[in-house]
């Protein structure tokens, strides 16, 4: 057996032992408190970033660029894997989580600004992502290096994904939608691995968000207020 798989199975054995008595309440149904939409990246620990160790507590969705949309018969629509917990499990909160140094945003930025190319499967995801970033790329300040541009566009992408949920007819108006960025590159000045709120229900001005949510004011920040 591949040694990597052997190591993974050993880790799973520890997991199974630790979690053996934590599945009793979710044997037949799930009622997660939130659906989180994160980027598919090995550095983004989708459950552990929240300190979650309880099965059934969070419904986690991961894809290239933390997108909430897919292409349907009538065009772009909220993705089924995001919609499912909202429609069928009573979930009333959605959190879109981007991350610093995002490779998907970098790829989309290069495709828009530098005419880069990716393999066909990745291109499909970038084609879904790039239109949401095009206006953001055009609005970037002059003189930014690629890393600075990408981290601004990470926030911009989160804003666009939040807007897609807020404006969708498929999503109940009562759904609370929050946009955030997971930082492991010292961009926001906090601890590595901290989550910084950048958008709540379409509101993205830091001062307005801090006034409205004083209980988490120290966790609200942006690198780009456009």
From TrEMBL:
Superkingdom to which the source organism belongs: Archaea
SMART domains from the UniProt entry: Pro_CA
Residue positions binding Zn(2+): 39, 99, 102
Keyword Zinc: yes
Cofactor note (record): Binds 1 zinc ion per subunit.
Enzyme Commission no: 4.2.1.1
Annotated protein name in UniProt: carbonic anhydrase
């Amino acid at each position: 057996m591949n040694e990597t798989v052997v190591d993974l199975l050993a880790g799973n054995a520890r997991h199974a032992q630790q979690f053996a008595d934590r599945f009793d309440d979710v044997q037949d149904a799930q009622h997660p408190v939130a659906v989180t939409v994160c980027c598919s990246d090995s550095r983004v620990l989708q459950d552990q970033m929240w300190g979650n160790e309880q099965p059934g507590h969070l419904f986690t969705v991961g894809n290239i660029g933390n997108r909430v949309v897919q292409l349907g018969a009538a065009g772009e629509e909220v993705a089924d894997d995001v919609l499912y917990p909202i429609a069928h499990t009573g979930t009333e909160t959605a959190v879109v989580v981007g991350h610093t140094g995002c490779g998907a945003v970098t790829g989309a930025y290069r495709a828009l600004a530098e005419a880069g190319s990716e393999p066909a499967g990745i291109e499909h995801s970038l084609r879904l992502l790039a239109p949401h970033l095009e206006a953001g790329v055009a609005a970037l300040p002059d003189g930014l290096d690629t890393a600075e541009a990408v981290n601004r566009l990470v926030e911009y992408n989160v804003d666009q994904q939040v807007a897609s949920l807020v404006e969708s007819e498929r999503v109940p108006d009562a759904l609370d939608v929050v946009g955030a960025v997971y930082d492991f590159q010292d961009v926001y000045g906090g601890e590595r691995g901290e989550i910084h709120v950048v958008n709540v229900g379409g509101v993205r001005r830091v001062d307005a968000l801090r006034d409205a949510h004083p209980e988490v004011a120290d966790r609200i920040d942006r690198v780009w207020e456009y």
